[in-house]
Amino acid sequence: MPNIYDIIRAAVLIGAFIFNARLDRKSWMLTDSMLVGSYGLGYSLFPGSLLESGGSMESYLVRLFGAIILGQVLIWYLTRRTVDDAVVGTILWSRLMGILVLLLVVFQGFWQSRESPSNKNVWFDLLGFLLLLGNTICYLVRGRYAVGGREQKGPVSIVLRIYFLILFFSGLCCMAFPKVMMPFKPLEKLDVVIMRSIGAVLFGNSIEAWYAPSWRSDENKNAFFISQILTSFLFCVTLAIAFFIEGTFNFREALILHTGVVPGMVILVGMYFIWKEGRDGNAMHSSYFTRSKSS
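Structure (tokenized):
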């Protein structure tokens, strides 16, 4: 049974999201970053609050999930003043698809195991994601943001396409083959749900990489790359905590898991090309090719 504290914090959360939905674009992008960032920070710093009986493996996966959330929050914050509506539309559609898939895999996991989560914090977090889904739909309807359109030629777009493939297939593999993606430890039912949730968020991130070549300013693309660097850095920190402090993995396992960061280093190549184009005075491309119309 929920106590008065649970009722109060749920009411505050609902009120915060309702208030946020009524703000202008720049304001709600800022407050939205703070709201979602608090979730990501909570997952990273206090994984045990979500899983009261979880072990070191569950803590590692929850921290990894929080790292991806914080990376998403960073691009939301860095692009809050953008004048390119396609950037906002892309991020919103990315988040919409990521949350929908996340909720699907979570509820499917609980239905398949015939068990409902006993920890009240899990229900509180699900409420948060449902409210975030509602806010995202509200923003899309209010702003009528479009995605796609004319894509810019050049090496930066090629890097973004490569990174899309990395995120897309990583997300699919985490959702379809969670035990293959984490072969070192036996995964419990809850571990599988968390792994699939990680895959859902990675799948949502891939949508940003797919449409980013149509963003007009390289500054926005650079913001995307920076957010992915933060995610990779936090992944390494999470792995270090699991290895040095919690003893989740041995040296060989930790070393192999670190190779998961290597494909993401392609973003450094993208940032180099952006820097090179800016140095040459070509930060804004003048040539385009049309792949798709705005949708």
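The beta strands are 150-152, 288-290. Residues 85-113 form the longest helix (29 residues).
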